[in-house]
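REQUEST FORM: STRUCTURE PREDICTION
Request ID: SP-0412
Submitted by: Lab K.M.
Chain count: 1
Length (residues): 73
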Amino acid sequence: MAAKKKKAAGGSAKKAKTGDLIISKSRVKAAARKCNVGSEFYGALDATVRNLIKLAEDRAQGNKRKTLKAVDL
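STATUS: Completed
RESULT:
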């Protein structure tokens, strides 16, 4: 039983770090061709993307739509 708890704890800690991001670190790194990407950049980019999605949702709902469109950005 102790082995299962240790394994579960280790797995959940890793998920908490990267599992919450909606962006792909590898794709961001590949898109940044001329610069290195600092570790704090991913969290800031993720927060910005989440905010853009929230604003787009608010705009779509304001226009009585349930579908996000490019115009909502």
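NOTES: The first helix runs from residue 2 to 18.
Reviewed by: T.R.
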